[in-house]
Write a structure and sequence with these properties.
Layout lengths: L2 H7 L10 E5 L7 E2 L11 E5 L6 E2 L1 H5 L6 E5 L18 E5 L18 E5 L16
Parallel strand pairs: 1-3, 2-4, 3-5, 5-6, 6-7
Length: 136
């Protein structure tokens, strides 16, 4: 049992005051995140990094994070897309780094609340749909 699996088995969603969570590597078989519930009402800052086999982000899991303001996704080499209608409307900052297989954002765009977007080392990414940014 590794630490990532143990976090979910401990009932991470019951930590009702947890505001920041960094989940970093350690779970080679993880292909979808989150597989189980996270603390929906308190979590404001989430980092997911170094999951070489992560292919998808669970739209159900992210939609329930109603207080999430900052999301970092780093070094997830097999991640291909951001979940359609899966990012919470509370999201203010989105950072994506070194996700070489990421090809697109949701067709419906990103949450209108988004204030900062940083994308680095995602060579296949194409921007489609509408985005909440002014052209001025």
């Amino acid at each position: 049992l590794n630490i990532t699996e143990a976090l979910f088995e401990w009932g991470l969603h019951r930590l009702t005051s947890l505001s920041r969570l960094v989940v970093s590597g350690g779970c080679q078989h993880l292909v979808s995140f989150p597989e189980k519930k996270l603390p929906a009402d308190s979590l404001t800052n989430l980092t997911i990094e170094r999951f070489p086999n992560l292919e998808a982000l669970s739209s159900e899991g992210f939609r329930s994070l109603t207080s999430l303001e900052q999301l970092r996704i780093e070094e997830c080499g097999k991640l291909t897309s951001i979940p359609e209608n899966g990012l919470p409307f509370s999201l203010l900052k989105l950072y994506i780094y070194k996700c070489e297989k990421l090809t697109s954002f949701p067709e419906n765009g990103l949450p209108p609340s988004l204030q900062q977007l940083s994308i680095n080392r995602c060579p296949l990414l194409t921007l489609q749909g509408t985005f909440p940014f002014d052209e001025n």
